[in-house]
Fold Acetylornithine aminotransferase.
Amino acid sequence: MNLFNVYPLFNINPVKAQGSFLWDDKGEQYLDFYGGHAVISIGHNHPYYQNKLKEQLGKISFYSNSVQNELQTELAEKLGKLSGYEDYNLFLCNSGAEANENALKLASFHNGKSKVLYFSGSFHGRTSAAVSVTDNPEIVAPVNYSGRFIKSEWNNVEQLEAIFETQGSEISSVIIEGIQGVGGIMIPTVEFVTKIKELCEQYDAVLILDEVQSGYGRSGYFFAHQEFSIRPDIITTAKGMGNGFPIGGVLIHPEFQASNGLLGTTFGGNHLACAAAIAVLDVIKDENLIENARKMGDYIENEIKDFPHITSIRRKGLMIGIELDRNCSEVRSNLLYSHHIFTGNSNDKSVLRILPALNIRKEEADLFSNALKTVLENISIQINV
Ligand SMILES: Cc1ncc(COP(=O)(O)O)c(C=O)c1O
């Protein structure tokens, strides 16, 4: 059997990882400044994380959600404390798309309405409702289309108000990323976010904050939206939550009523996943990684801001978008093949997406900025955006 060929692959086969580094099957070392799409939050194979998982493997790895699981309670308590959402309830699942799918469903159960407002540039996952609120027609299949999903322009308050004026009574929820990741590190304005919150309250629509990529300390806040002092009705999370172990979560305002069978999953919240997620929270707290994300983000921006070919830097903490005066693919390949540094791209072809682990050190930041400087100084003249 062959693999279903849906991923364009780099010809690199990592077999070992530690901290911010990977090693391939030939023993070559790579610096990881992308974390496999923002997944690596506390660094690869953190010893505390490894021990927690090993310990858990020696006890029990899985039983279904039909029995007590104290690890889920511990995870919910720790997540509530560290995120500042102690009064919210937690539903555990397995991925970002699944978290958003459940959030959209829960909103609709809650207010009985069916339309969803989403934004240009958004990415919310590939399951049915999640992909319908994702702004990429290439990954939306005919089976996903319906008239229920309304797109509004990012950071455009007037358009938002106009849509609510005509369809507000039918809108069940608004879904927005804390910071758009796949869209090219797009940061919402405070005016935009505040208006969304206000309109949701006015029209009884549920505000869903997708913090799958921007959450878990990446932005220098536990959740990126916390910079704006708004409290959404539902928050979704995944990626950095398990540092590579698949887990997702939906944080739900206490006014939402749970009932048996309303939501469910076989694997969500299993013992191993919870052990991984608890370890991540312990490390983020004990090693002050949110503070480190702020500090190292500032440091990197300061180091690279005057490099040639950079037209702007969009950034919060260690969620960094470096906009170039050209398509970033040549720079990205150069960083990877000549300097052994993993970085990411985005739907905005000129934006290099940088998402290192939250515990990177100055030495690692310097490796990256020195390499970027060399690449940008030696870039071909041609502008090819
Ligand atoms: C903001 C956001 N939401 C949801 C998802 C989907 O997450 P997953 O791939 O775990 O389903 C992603 C993935 O990139 C994302 O960036």
